[in-house]
Amino acid sequence: MSSVLVHCFLRQSLCVPTILEHSSVTSSSGVPPNAPWQASMANERAFQIRKCLIPTKFNAGKIRVIKGRRRMISVVLRAVLTTDPTFKLAGKFILDENSELQISIGTSTQGSSFKINIQVKNSRDSLILHWGGICHGKKKWILPSCQPDGTKIYKNRALRTPLMKSGLESCVKIEIDDPEIQAIEFLIFDEKQNKWFKDNGENFCVQLKEELSPNVLVPEEFLRHERKEKQNYTPEQEKVEYEVSPIGQLEEIASAVPIGEVEQQAKLTKSDDNSKAEEFYVLENMSMIPDDLVQVQAYIRWKRVGRPNYSPDQQLKEFEEARKELQIELDKDGSLDEIQKKLTKGDIQARVSKQLQNKRYFTVERIQRKKRNLMELLTEYATESVKQKLSIPSNDPTTVEIFLNAKVEQDGGPILNKSTFKLGNEELLVLVTKPFGKTKVYLATDLKGPLTLHWGVSRKPGEWAAPPQSALPHGSVLLDSASQTELVERYYGDPPCQVKFVEIEIGEENFVGIPFVLLSGRKWRKNNGSDFYVDFGLGAGKLKQRGESDGKGIAKDLLDKIAEKESQAQKSFMHRFNIASDLIEWAKDAGELGLAGIFVWMRFMATRQLIWNKNYNVKPREISRAQDRFTDSLQNIYKSYPQYQEILRMILTTVGRGGEGDVGQRIRDEILVIQRKNNCKGGMMEEWHQKLHNNTSPDDVIICQALINYIKSDLDISSYWKTLNSNGITKERLLSYDRAIHSEPNFRRDQKDGLLLDLQNYMRTLKAVHSGADLESAIGNCMGYRAKGRGFMVGVQINPVAGLPSGFPELLQFVLDHVEDKNIEPFLEGLLEAREELRPLLRKPHDRLRDLLFLDISLDSMVRTAIERGYEELNNDGPQKMMYFITLVLENLSLSSDNNRDLIYCLKGWNHALYMFRAGDDGWALYAKSFLDRSRLALACKAEQYEQLLQPSAKYLGSLLGVDQWAVNIFTEEVIRAESAASLSSLLHRLDPFLRRSANLGSWQVISPIETIGYVEVVDELLAVQNKSYGRPTILVAKSVKGEEEIPAGTVAVLTSDLPDVLSHVSVRARNSKVCFATCFDPDILSDLRVNEGKLLQLEPTSADIFYSEVKDSELSETSSTNLKECGPSPSLTLVRKHFCGRYAISSEEFTREMVGAKSCNIAHLEGKAPSWVGIPTSVALPFGVFEKVLLHSSNQAVADTLETLKKRLKEGEFSTLGPIREAVLQLAAPPQLVQELKNKMQSSRIPWPGDEGEHRWAQAWMAIKKVWASKWNERAFFSTRKAKLDHNSLCMAVLVQEIINADYAFVIHTTNPSSGDSSEIYAEVVKGLGESLVEAYPDRALSFSCKKSDLNSPRLLGYPSKPIGLFIRQSIIFRSDSNGEDLEGYAGAGLYDSVPMDDEEKVVVDYSLDPLIIDDNFRQSILSSIARTGSAIEELYGSPQDIEGVVKDGKIYVVQTRPQM
């Protein structure tokens, strides 16, 4: 068999897409030419071209495909071109209305070159051929050496040859003699009209030669012919050869199995001459089923199971199974016509054709995502403090209200209901009272002109009956089912204002409400298009119930107004949405808290915590109109107030889209169509019909879906109830509707097909009103649609949204096509690409913004749904897939969040982690773990923000409205669960153990490895119990440990899931106090520890793990008592009180132990002794006793008296005075002598004097000094010294003054590894910016490393940083605390007191993806080695282990303080 078959035909545009650098990236329809969903418009043309090039018979080199009962195989044979120089037509193309392109090809007589004739009929005289050659393996065009006359080279990328005009035709002839060129590509350019002609959006392509690819499809009879050395076949022999080719081989050909596999399979599947006639009969029958039906059935099967990727073997099996299923249908006395009609309804054939065209029949197609700058996702607004910005305008009582209140006071009865209705600029107020057991209704308004009340009474909800004669006011006219009463005119108030009112006494009869309308002149006045209704059933107690709240953190006035309006809102969705529309402007004026109040109210409604319909009938179109009004108000605020966009999106998730006109009315009309067409007018369908007419709700979407599932399950009623119950609809709820649904569906089998189709159509109508965030409905509203016939959405036309990005409709179609895919990765990519394309439209005004918002919300929601569906897929994949999914969900969360900088930086970090993984970097897991921790913290911060914003309003409004307490308690938690943040949290949880294993991190980070025994106690926060004293040895399992807490007395261990730094205050305190302290990364271990609360456990830590076991009380032996005693130093420790030395300020040369603390003395000791490459900042100090001296100054007498009183109260145990003491210290005035001395010392030491920049700068410096002194009385320091039995009055505070080095990085070194106690190893932590983010316990971890002192050039990275915040500051001064209570032997007092910069630090969200310390290995190795060398040199200088703080600026190391390591 020949190994090379050469063909010459125009390539079908979607088979091998080619995009040139100079070509347009989109087709004329706006679809990217490489988009997998683009349908080829040239299929028919391409087939015709192939057909004319394929010979139909073969005799020694020719082959004829025999058509018979066997399946037709689509075949392209590649025959060797003959040496006949005659041109043969290869194809025709219509360029425009008049012009036709013809392409003919031929070869030279020697066969050494190809000739192409390109001819345009009915052409203009300005056509240019823009062309080039294609070589194997090269993307760009090459320029053939043989070029027609007049050819010009265009930008060294292409050739441009003019077509020669001759009569009505233009043509050009090209000869290709370059053996490397396999094809030519071209476009035609009309120079005068500046218009390009393409082949369906792509380049025209003429294939000249090509080696047989592995995927070439060749029929079995051709293989047989080749094997038999191309002997001549008669037509009869050809038929025999075709008939005996096995079905298995034809299957392989149809499913695009490589030719080698076909040949191999052919050898294995030769016909057995002894095959049974029965088997042959089955084969023959199966062969009667056409190929196209098998393909459709296989496609349906593939889509049904979620479009998985199939191997070639699985493809074969799928085709066989599809054929068998069709054969079973055929054997049931069915016909091929019936099967074809059933299978090919809708657009299924078009979908199958598209899949075949793309040659990805059993492979999920993917979109090509655009490369974008992630920082374009950034959305930042000034953070609005969570406080009520503006209350609702004070509701000073109107004249109408004062008038009615006076009437009610005369009666003295309780108020049952109070309802206010807006009538344009006027109001209508109705009060219901019950004095002496008789119901009275007072109605008053300031509406002008004659006014008649047309009213009735109701004994049950929805009734309108004539009132009893005894209830008619004077002058009333009784009608058949109502009464008319003129309102009486009165003047009231000062100055007098007109009020019209009527008083109705209902009596003691059992009426539940009063419906009414107003006749003003000749105009009927209604409540937003519906009747007014006032309910009698609301008791005074419920109306006046108020939650306990001081108004902080909520828009209290707004929430009170919502509670007042709730009785009206309960009537129907129409009432509720109209009230919400009335209140939304007030909410906007109240700021973020006001909008949060609206969201809480709407979500209580959406979760069925509030009544949806009570005693009121309303048309669906009125509900739809009210929804439309409310959502229109929301979109207008969204346009004008971008800082509220996130909370506005949240509100939109709770309501349907609504719509004007007949959008809602179709709900009523189309259910009648369903009943009439399918003859199901009774039973459940009639009850549902009555409910839909009376008051449609979002429940109807679920009921419709339950009916659809019931039909699809072959009328299994359990499927109906399963759908309802899983969505919160019980039998009791069905019975609770005003028009109750008592019956179950009971359809006949002959109704199934019609009902299924009609209910699926009806679902679109329901979702158009109730499900704004439904994906299909949202896409339909944006893309537009027009309904035709069948009684559904008849006459409805929604125009497409204008200004959508090019290719966006096809992108949305891709999303819809893959909603149910089992392989969710391409689907997620499509969702995210659609959101990215949509984002620019959401950032600017648009007349269809609401539709775009609902589309974006639906895409957002579908990401979470898809991730949850894809968990099974992740179980079988490695970390790369999980990390990729994390990037997608983070991108989605960033698109939905305001102030999303940290989320974007997390996303950038995960992208880099993926890059490291793919590049085989051994540190990928350690790096990914840091961003996993940071991502968790970002989610925790977002949850905390939601809790602060939403929960107070939920608590307050919930108490006013009587919402179930459990629903209030979990309100914010459930909001978070409904977002993609919950999906991200789940993915992080799944990936965490894998990363820990890969990075050899284990389940624990042991900070203080002390073996101990104690009783387990579980607490939320260590801070909450830091001042407690436990009476028995206690192991605290704490959820939150920030790093600056004290360890309670009696505590022997602290185990937490939090991430305090190894060198934080609490870590140092634990090691110093011999308390076991560790972070646990495994939630299962922590859960097990919590279960052991109250039990006695023994902890046996190593440097990287903790083993624990339960022990008996008797094992609490004396040998362990040294580890179980109360934490703290020996009681023999004392503080020596220091005295004023006579000077307010001293330079570093004057530092002594009597004048300053260890911090100042140590820094002075380093000056001139540290290595020259280590910088030491110049220092001065306010020595001990200065504070006391200032307090004695005459200008501070009042402050001194106040402090004396407060300290006496503190001594008596009144700890609440600590705050007032600090406030009093801040009132001190600076003696002039202090100012002058400090100025002189700072200037002589070349430290900038703040006062040189103005008095306000000195005022800032003086306040910072006072804050250092005041920190003596902060809670942590006070209780620490008290617990250590140190005399707090003897504690003196010096202040070390240094110029701040505006650092690139800050570090803390322990020259003996604190976790292992290894004195041969240095341990250090590094942060971005100032060191306060490290020593002041900002959340999450710093970069950490260790280094052997014997090899200081080889630091070992232990962990990448996950701290999201870096601190930066302008050139400034810092005032450091330096007490006589620090660094005492056995007591770690360092860090208890405050160091205060003169200027506030700027908190900056850190982007580690740009930090050379993280991404540049050489730079990191250099900096970490320098830090390690610094620690070793200073330890050598002091001769003992040191705790060193320093900074890095432009690569230079500075040490700002050192102390003995505790």
List descriptors.
globular; 39% helix; 7-stranded mixed sheet; alpha+beta; 1462 residues; 18% strand
Structure report:
- The chain is an alpha+beta fold and 1462 residues long.
- 39% of the residues lie in helices and 18% in strands.
- It has 47 helices and 45 strands.
- A hairpin with a 5-residue loop joins strand 1 (88-94) and strand 2.
- The radius of gyration is 41 Å and the shape is globular.
The low-pLDDT segments are: 1-85, 211-233, 237-287, 384-395, 538-547, 1118-1131
How many alpha or pi helices? 47
What shape does the CA trace take?
Answer: globular
Widest beta sheet: strand line-up: 25-29-28-27-26-30-31
Fraction in helix:
25-40%
Mean pLDDT: 79
Strand content: 15-25%
DSSP strand count: 45
- Note the gap between the termini: 85 Å
Tell me the Rg in angstroms: 41 Å
The major sheet is characterized as: 7 strands, mixed
Oligomeric state of the chains?
single chain
The helix-and-strand class reads: alpha+beta
